[in-house]
Specification:
Strand content: under 5%
Distance between the termini: 45 Å
Radius of gyration: 15 Å
Shape: elongated
Largest sheet: none
Number of helices: 4
Number of domains: 1
Helix content: 55-70%
């Protein structure tokens, strides 16, 4: 595994920790640009959890990138599916009723 992959892993873990701690709401795309009334519709704790889990998943799967083309393709497919799941959950589970 090369230093670039290790650096990305560390970056994703640190960003996930920042978001999970509540200090990185400005890093969540869409939430930081939403108006006050739109933000009130979102359960921010659940949204933080979703985004942090996605970042931790990316960090955990980073070693697949150091493999050959098949590892990179597998990584891309898994992250794409996980991203769709996070977007769906962010629009359903993370919304206040």
């Amino acid at each position: 595994m090369n230093w670039f992959i290790i650096g990305l892993m560390v970056l994703f873990v640190v960003l996930g920790g920042i978001i999970l701690s509540g200090k990185g709401d400005c890093l969540i795309a869409g939430y930081n640009m939403a108006g006050k009334e739109e933000r009130e519709k979102v359960n921010i704790k659940r949204l933080r959890l979703l985004i942090a889990v996605l970042l931790f998943l990316c960090a955990a799967l980073m070693p697949l990138l150091s493999l050959f083309l098949m590892g990179g393709l597998t990584f891309a497919v898994i992250i794409l599916v996980a991203s769709f799941v996070v977007v769906y959950l962010a629009n359903t589970w993370a919304m206040k009723k």
